[in-house]
Amino acid sequence: MWKTVLFLVFTLIVVPVCAYIYDVPMSDRQIEIMMPVIWVYLLFAALCFIVSTLSDNYSQVDKLWSIMPAIYAWMTAYHASMDARLVLVASLITFWAIRLTFNFARRGGYSWKFWTGEEDYRWAILRAKPEFSAKWKWVLFNLFFISFYQMGLVLLITLPMIKMVDGKALGVADYFLAAAIVVVVIFEFIADQQQWNYQKEKYRLKKAGLPLEGIYKKGFTHTGLWVYMRHPNYAAEQLVWILIYCFSISATGFWINWTIAGSILLVLLFKGSSDFSEKISAEKYSDYKEYQKKVPRFVPFTKW
């Protein structure tokens, strides 16, 4: 576990720095626009650490995961004089944010007491591991990984907008990317809804003391889009931010720039997160290992 955490924190620092060194230097205007965003990140990362430590609820970053990108996006667009491409991208990010915020809210993630709300079940399982038996180890994990790493990643995935500042005029590629993101977000909403419907009915049957039969016998979502991918929502999430990065390609004409670090780190995070989730599912559901053998994780039709 510690090796994984150290690797992710290491990549958060090294990947952006290396990419930045080999990229075209940012203009003074781009740096000026980026600095307020970085200060907001530092403030909210610190608040997440403080609130989670005091409340013993470690889903504070989860509550902000869908909100902060929209804030960063509109801050960038505003300081860039509401450039057409930046306004388009900020609107797309807001569309994505509304979907994810809604999905998180209906699962009980928010409360009028902002420090409470349903905690991601994986944090409790992680805290119970022997590696975190000493309280100071969990405090450091919360500080560096949960609070500053994850909030830093939320910042990084929006930073391609900085490279779009003073970029080329909007073109056909931008409209194609915008349409693709709308389709992917709708796909993500469908996947979330299918999972929500399945779990809601499963727990209704359990609460009523009725046997789990038919598709509910397995205990995990495996119908609809979940027939083709074990994590269609995760796959779509990664694709959204890869497409956001592609807007920086359209704006600059260069395929690689330092803001690609956000997309790379997001893919690494989802790989690690899905590994952990699947380990729990395989221990909990007897049919899950067979499901893993037959159904690909993120890319459909890669298992025959």
Provide structural commentary.
- The chain has 304 residues and is mostly helical.
- It has one domain.
- It is 70% helix and 0% strand.
- The chain has helices at 2-21, 28-55, 60-65, 68-79, 84-106, 121-127, 135-156, 160-164, 172-207, 232-252, 260-284, 288-294.
- The mean pLDDT is 90.
Please render the helix and strand layout as text.
Elements: H1 2-21, H2 28-55, H3 60-65, H4 68-79, H5 84-106, H6 121-127, H7 135-156, H8 160-164, H9 172-207, H10 232-252, H11 260-284, H12 288-294
Helix pairs in contact: 1-7, 1-11, 2-4, 2-7, 4-5, 5-9, 5-10, 7-11, 9-10, 10-11
Task: Supply database-style keywords.
12 helices; single chain; 304 residues; mainly alpha
Q: How far is the N terminus from the C terminus?
A: 32 Å
Radius of gyration: 20 Å
Measured by DSSP, the beta-strand proportion falls in under 5%
Structural class: mainly alpha
Number of helices: 12
Give the SSE string. Answer: HHHHHHHHHHHH
Largest sheet: none
**Would you tell me the overall average pLDDT?**
90
Shape field:
globular
Number of strands: 0
Structure summary:
Helices cover about 70% and strands about 0% of the residues.
